[in-house]
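Tokens in:
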């Protein structure tokens, strides 16, 4: 089995940090990830810097990242201005978020879910014309910090609506880390049935210690693209307690032991997680950096 890991530490990882990380250090993080074998990296977001100041230097970061063969850089966008900036910066992919509930969508993006679908549809057309790979992420697909439970039927209907714009990829995001393996299997099966032409991707947080179980459940359900964040850093600044992306090194440990091919070398990712913790002035949440590899190498 081959699985693609999307490294999200430079974007989803750093966006929730209170201390601003320099563009130079973000570029170092990206370079270290590329050197470890990661080939899809969500490097930046093109959002209002007043709301997410960590991402204000997106253009500078993209100007400095290594342009190696086979490496694809994604930028998160919310609107036409964001797409303009992404095109100017030379991204290879765009990721547009549509939130599954109005309450969270209004806080996160200033629009309803229906308006979010409309935005995505317009952006998808322009991005396709520009030759970009297009991902639409359904945020809060497993639960909302404001509305609570999100019915499976609601998410499946939203998948149907966003699929009309023919995305290259649909990502299901457990934004606040409340999902469980049974729900992962159900939504993955539903997405595959509704949008068989789109690649299915999953984004999990380990906030309540279910993130890795959910990742394995996704693989068992046929998902072959998983997000992870080196060091396990990350979260959403607009969702209470939305902490703890699943860590790239911890996920790699499980996948390596299971014989799953990723093309990523675990040792340099482990070193980067430790470096990132030092950079942020606090231990990285990832557990492998504390326990070490087994068998020891």
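Residues out:
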């Amino acid at each position: 089995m081959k699985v693609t890991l999307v490294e999200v530490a430079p974007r989803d990882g750093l966006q929730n940090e209170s201390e601003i990380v320099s563009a130079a250090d973000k570029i170092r993080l990206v370079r270290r990830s590329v050197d470890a074998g990661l080939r899809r990296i969500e490097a930046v977001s093109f959002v209002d810097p007043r709301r997410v100041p960590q991402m204000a230097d997106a253009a500078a970061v993209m100007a400095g990242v290594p342009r190696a063969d086979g490496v694809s850089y994604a930028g998160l966008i919310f609107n036409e201005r964001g797409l303009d900036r992404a095109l100017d910066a030379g991204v290879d992919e765009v990721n547009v978020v549509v939130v599954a509930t109005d309450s969270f969508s209004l806080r996160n993006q200033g629009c309803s879910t229906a308006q979010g679908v409309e935005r995505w549809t317009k952006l998808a057309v322009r991005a396709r014309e520009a030759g970009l790979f297009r991902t639409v992420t359904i945020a809060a697909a497993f639960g909302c910090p404001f509305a609570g439970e999100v019915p499976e039927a609601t998410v499946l209907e939203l998948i149907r609506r966003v699929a009309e714009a023919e995305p290259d990829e649909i990502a299901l995001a457990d934004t606040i880390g409340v999902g469980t393996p049974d729900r992962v299997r159900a939504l993955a099966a539903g997405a595959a049935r509704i949008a068989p032409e789109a690649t299915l991707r999953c984004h999990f947080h380990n906030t309540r210690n279910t993130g890795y179980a959910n990742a394995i459940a996704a693989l068992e359900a046929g998902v072959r693209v998983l997000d992870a964040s080196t060091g396990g850093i990350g979260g959403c600044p607009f969702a209470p307690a939305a902490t703890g992306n699943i860590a790239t090194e911890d996920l790699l440990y499980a996948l390596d032991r299971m014989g799953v091919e990723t093309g990523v070398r675990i040792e340099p990712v482990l070193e980067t997680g430790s470096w990132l913790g030092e950079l942020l002035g606090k231990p990285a949440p990832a557990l492998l950096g504390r326990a070490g590899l087994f068998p020891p190498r």
